[in-house]
């Protein structure tokens, strides 16, 4: 049975491998995407050092198989970003994505008024998942976006 828990320092390598594996699968292993984020090799430190930020992992049989994070978008006090939500193929379709997203959004709603996310159109199932959970698709990225290669953007009121 899969569990959702806070990211630990010892999860850094495992979650980096999950993110990179998913990015390769969907053609996201290129410039302008999470692939090049300096924080990817130490997500624990990244989320630990930022106020009102957190990251959760999905663990199955002792193995990290997915995760997602919440952090402020830019320097905003009212807008956060859903970040690095990725699940390995073996847990997609099992129903764990919904509780993972709700864990993140419940946390976000305590601090922020809106949640933004950026993704790729090639991640069709993820795009449908976000729409199903109340995210509205935007026509363009928000000013200040660091991931210039993303081509799908969503916003949700919290």
UniProtKB/TrEMBL annotation:
Keyword Transferase listed: yes
Top-rank taxon, per record: Bacteria
Classification via Pfam families: Acetyltransf_7
Keywords from the named record: Transferase
GO molecular function, one term: N-acetyltransferase activity
Domain N-acetyltransferase: 2-158
Keyword Transferase: yes
PROSITE patterns, A to Z: GNAT
InterPro entries in the record: Acyl_CoA_acyltransferase, GNAT_dom, NAT_camello-type
Protein name (Swiss-Prot/TrEMBL): N-acetyltransferase
Lineage summary: Bacteria, Bacillati, Bacillota, Bacilli, Bacillales
